[in-house]
Amino acid sequence: MPRVVTGEFRGTILNAPKGDNTRPTTDKVKEAVFSMIQMRVPECSFLDIFSGTGQMGIEAVSRGAVEAVMIERSGAAAGIIKENLQKIHCGEDPRFRLIKAHYDKALEVLGQEGKKFDIIFLDPPYREAHKDMVRIAGLIRQYGLLSEGGIVLCEHSSDLPFDTDVINLKFIRSCSYGLTVITFFE
After folding, report:
1. What is the domain range of residue 154?
2. Would residue 12 count as lying in a domain?
3. Residue 41 domain-assigned?
4. Phi, psi for residue 92 in degrees, rounded to 5
5. pLDDT tens digits, one per residue of 118-130
6. Span 125-181, pLDDT tens digits
7. Residues in contact with 171: Cβ distance below 8 Å, sequence separation at least 6, in sequence order
8. Cα 77 to Cα 18: distance, rounded to the nearest angstrom
9. Domain count, the chain
10. Looking at residue 156, which CATH number applies to its domain?
């Protein structure tokens, strides 16, 4: 079960959907990611695409982000996110926003609202990660969703091809954690 590593909600064990339709980011990878971006998190605006359990957005706010917008199209996973927000007593907290929709529609809505994010994290299904990253990078640019100096992180598998040259963002680096890779863009 995922847990909040540190900050305001530290130690809270979060719910995860049963079955293998949702693959929560492991605590090891989550800790490594937040260790690398820790100086960027306080006061940031955080976008979590393919939110699953909501743990990355919850962790970001726990560490000082001013808001976390979580996009999830699965009704079951969106229900788990709502449960997890209740677990941390933030069901109505304005720092959290859940958008239950496909990322195409959700990003369009955020673009129409003029939203900008300092950190965008996505954890798509591994088999679709490259295709989704290419599409989402285009939408981020189209709607101007990344703030000046902002970063995009994509979690994907080391076993599947992931060509950073065809992604419409500047590649920074990739970090491997066993079968999981986090690739950074700006």
Report:
1. 27-185
2. no
3. yes
4. -115, 15
5. 999 999 999 999 9
6. 999 999 999 999 999 999 999 999 999 999 999 999 999 999 999 999 999 999 999
7. 164, 165, 183, 184, 185
8. 10
9. 1
10. 3.40.50.150
